[in-house]
Amino acid sequence: MPIINFEFAIQEIPAVLKGVPITLAIAVVAMVFGLIFGLLIALCRIYRVPILNRLFIIYISFIRGTPLLVQLYVFFYGVPVLLDKMNQSFGTAYNADHISPLLYAFIAFTINVSAYQAEIMRASLNAVQIGQMEAAHSVGMTTFQALKRIVLPQAFLVALPNLGNTFIGLIKATSLAFAVKVVEVMALAKIIANDGYHFLEMYLVAALIYWLICWLLEVLFTFVEEKMRNKEIKQKKMNTTISKDLPLRV
Amino acid sequence: MSVMNDWFSLFIQVLDKLPITLFMLLISLVCSLVLGVAIAIVRIKRFTVLYQIATFYLSFCRSTPLLVQLFLVYFGLPQLLLAFQIDINSLDRMIFVLISLSLHNAAYLSEVVRSAYLAVGEDQFEAAYSVGMTYTQALWRVVLPQAFVLSLPNLGNNIIELLKDTSLAFTIGIIDIMGQVRIILGNNHGIGMFEIYVVISLIYWGTCILIEMVISTLEKVLKKGKVSLSKS
User: Fold this and answer.
1) What are the TM regions of this chain, as residue ranges (chain A) (predicted)?
2) Of A183, B102, B150, B182, which alpha carbon lies 20 to 30 A from A72's?
3) What is the domain partition of chain B in residue ranges?
């Protein structure tokens, strides 16, 4: 018997690849919503919104202090309990069995990744100098306008490498989605492997798929980062030429 | 009252297996630290062939989920070695977990070590050479102690990540705190899943907070020494 049955592995690659869209869907949805919630949480923490600040500190500590797998289980088994309580007290009739596993995965991963994004966004917002905000105020912008037009674009640039890392981490984390009964790359590989004891082959295939996805993402992020940086350098050059032309320069 | 008792007994039952989780954490931390320092030095010194291998290994470890690596080691390694007439199927499962956790974490730790090593600076080496130390001596006596202090915040994060990673060990049948939860659930016929996962998340949270506190105390103590040294 050969050590690795390559024929079998190659033959089963398409079957495992069927899980890629689900893996990517979970990662993208969690990333996008995580970015939105993370930004809001970061702003709450930076401006020290009274109760929310405390609450989010605890939330972030909890998410970063417990394994994702445990969070998935807590969420997966907690929602039915919560719905039961809700049905009893409000007389509604929601049935937890009708919620698709994918929705569980979307929400649970978003809850998890929001905490990490919040810390990234907080660090990046803090990295933008306070003078930028003051300058924006001095030309009559409101805080919201200043955030949107001046501070956030700069903070986003600072955050980009970390966000890339988070996204790659998220791709790897989706391999835990079996906890909420989602069948993605890892689960498919496991099912096929269990069928004929082709463990080595199938897990190698899964590893290669994850590796390829992560590598492609890395290339993409490097490209985007370079683009953004070049754009910034160009803008800076433009600004200096403009300011040189201005007659009233102090 | 009985509700309180239920929660309390759950806590005790799960805490009973905490030593196993901590054991996995400690052993794999030490192994991965040794391996991580070795990889970091290979990458910094750019030993031609080893450098390529190390880079390849890092890329693999950091681009595939730990779960895949764990399964590859647990299911794949025996299958691979069996072809060379080596039978390791009878080995304890714990060894497979320790191997995969160490290999996985070494990749991350090597980057932590590498950045700390580079942060110490080449001049420290030059100073050590100028008083006649060899490379190994300079490394052990001068650079690594400084690099250790610099890397403490990252190291702390890494230890916490590692603790969370140990929660995957139950997938191959280790009875750590996650495995214990599984057993309790089996005995309860799946009743009270939510409560028990809340309990275990609190235990993980508490352990993480403890680790964080230890690291930040260590940081303060070691930094204090550094300040007084430079002032004297």
Assistant:
1) 20-44, 56-79, 99-116, 155-180, 200-224
2) B102
3) 2-231
